[in-house]
Amino acid sequence: MSHEGNDILDADQLHTYYGKSHILHGVSLRVGAGEIVTLLGRNGAGKTTTLRSLMGLTPPRQGRIRLFGQDVTGWPPHRIAKLGVGYVPEGRKIFGHLTVHDNLRVPAATTGRWTLDTVYDLFPRLAERRTSKGGQLSGGEQEMLAIARALLLNPRFLILDEPSQGLAPVIVDEVMKTVVAMRDEGIAVLLVEQNAWLALRDADRAYVLGDGEVVHEGSAAELAADEERVKALAGASLDTSASAAAS
């Protein structure tokens, strides 16, 4: 069944390599308008490689990528971003020597709902810390800054890699509320998340990767209801105490 027309992302049979290592073996996934889709899997399953393939950072050698109905296979990352794709990579990649305010002025201004003022409204903590250097922020504040910076491009599609990594549960909750708010604003979201419980709670649909292949796809709620299956597929527990213990 084709969903084209309503699809923000339609990736078909991606094969991606690092040098001679064949990492992705025919990965296909789609994200519809106004949808949160999560990509789960054990460490080394190919989740980050999938995101890097979609962004043109590690272009697939085979397969096709369509964004907003347009074939973008082989496009460079800046051209993909310009279409309206915001990418928050693992590790956040903010500028530690710049203030919060200057970090937010790095993206070229675009017209739309997201401006410095609306981003500060969304993240009051960043407004309070606007003169602090990026390197002085807590992990949660850095994650907010990375998301805020992506929002200033007024994306129609937001790709997030491990937004909860290393954050305390209360901050993780705040970050995920923001992700849900993005969807409610009509932004489609593709979320890679180690914390399966967290991702499945807020997502509409889920894909699970295993050794560079999609081994499961379906409703996030249905997968969340089957804890044994999540453990088997994603190597993760749905128990939130696991994330609490890690923080």
> What is the helix fraction of residues, given as a range?
25-40%
Shape: globular
CATH superfamily: P-loop containing nucleotide triphosphate hydrolases
**Strand arrangement across the biggest beta sheet:** 6-7-8-3-9-10
> How many structural domains does the protein architecture include?
1
Report low-confidence residues grouped into runs of 5 or more: 240-247
Radius of gyration: 17 Å
CATH architecture: 3-Layer(aba) Sandwich
Number of helices: 11
Output the structural class. Answer: alpha/beta
> What amount of the residues lies in strands?
25-35%
Instruction: Give the class-level CATH name.
Output: Alpha Beta
Amino- and carboxy-terminal Cα gap: 42 Å
Query: SSE string, helix = H, strand = E?
Result: EEEHEEHEHHHHEHEHEEHHH
Mean pLDDT: 87
Taking the sheet with the most strands, its summary is: 6 strands, mixed
What is the fold-level CATH name, i.e. the topology? Rossmann fold
- Count every beta strand, where a strand is a DSSP E run of 2 or more residues: 10
Q: What attributes characterize this protein structure?
A:
247 residues; alpha/beta; four-stranded antiparallel sheet; 11 helices; 35% helix; globular
Please describe what this structure looks like.
With 247 residues, the protein is of the alpha/beta class. The chain has a single domain (7-246), classed as Rossmann fold. The chain is 35% helix and 26% strand. The strands form two sheets. Strands 6-7-8-3-9-10 form a six-stranded mixed sheet, with helices on both faces. α7 (169-184) links the parallel β7 and β8. The longest helix is centred in the last third of the chain and has 16 residues, at 169-184. 43% of the residues are buried. Mean pLDDT is 87; it is low at 240-247.
